[in-house]
Design goal:
Layout: E1 2-17, H1 20-24, H2 46-56, H3 71-74, H4 80-88, E2 99-100, E3 104-105, H5 114-118, E4 130-145
């Protein structure tokens, strides 16, 4: 009996949403508020928070821009002065470190984390701004033969 591999091709569709006008007119920009302290006191869970930050922004070196702050520093106990300095500059540390209150995300759309491009707040489904990205995936399926 010999085992050979046969390839079946299947597709995965990733859905992204984009509507600059809808996003700009958003009253809350809650999708960018990824470090909200009203959900959990981040300072009491430093290892969990570090995993969250590094997992959310897996490849910041690919963004082509510098963040406004380091969330791992600003959100830890004893760094209230850094927090207050950001707030005085109009930067809310509960929002993503790449969020600008006047213009939104400073990362070019194509370079943003996947979860940001795929996020749908509900307002975007009312528009025709859905982008379907179809990926072909080859599955190796073992088959038996004699």
């Amino acid at each position: 009996m010999s085992i050979s591999k046969q390839q079946n091709t299947s597709t995965i569709t990733l859905v992204e949403y984009e509507n600059a006008k809808t996003c700009k007119e958003c009253p809350t920009h809650a999708c960018c508020k990824i470090y909200a302290t009203d959900v959990v006191d981040i300072r009491d869970k430093p290892s969990w928070f570090k995993e969250w930050v590094e997992g959310f922004h897996e490849h910041p070196e690919d963004y082509g821009v510098e963040p406004f702050f380091d969330p791992l520093e600003v959100h830890m106990r004893g760094h209230e002065a850094e927090w207050n300095a950001l707030v005085a500059k109009g930067i809310d540390p509960e929002f993503c470190q790449y969020y600008n209150a006047q213009s939104g995300c400073i990362i070019e759309r194509e370079r943003r984390p996947t979860q940001c491009r795929q996020y749908n707040c509900g307002r975007l489904t009312e528009t025709d701004d859905r982008i379907d990205i179809v990926l072909e995936v080859a599955d190796e399926v073992p088959s038996t033969g004699s």
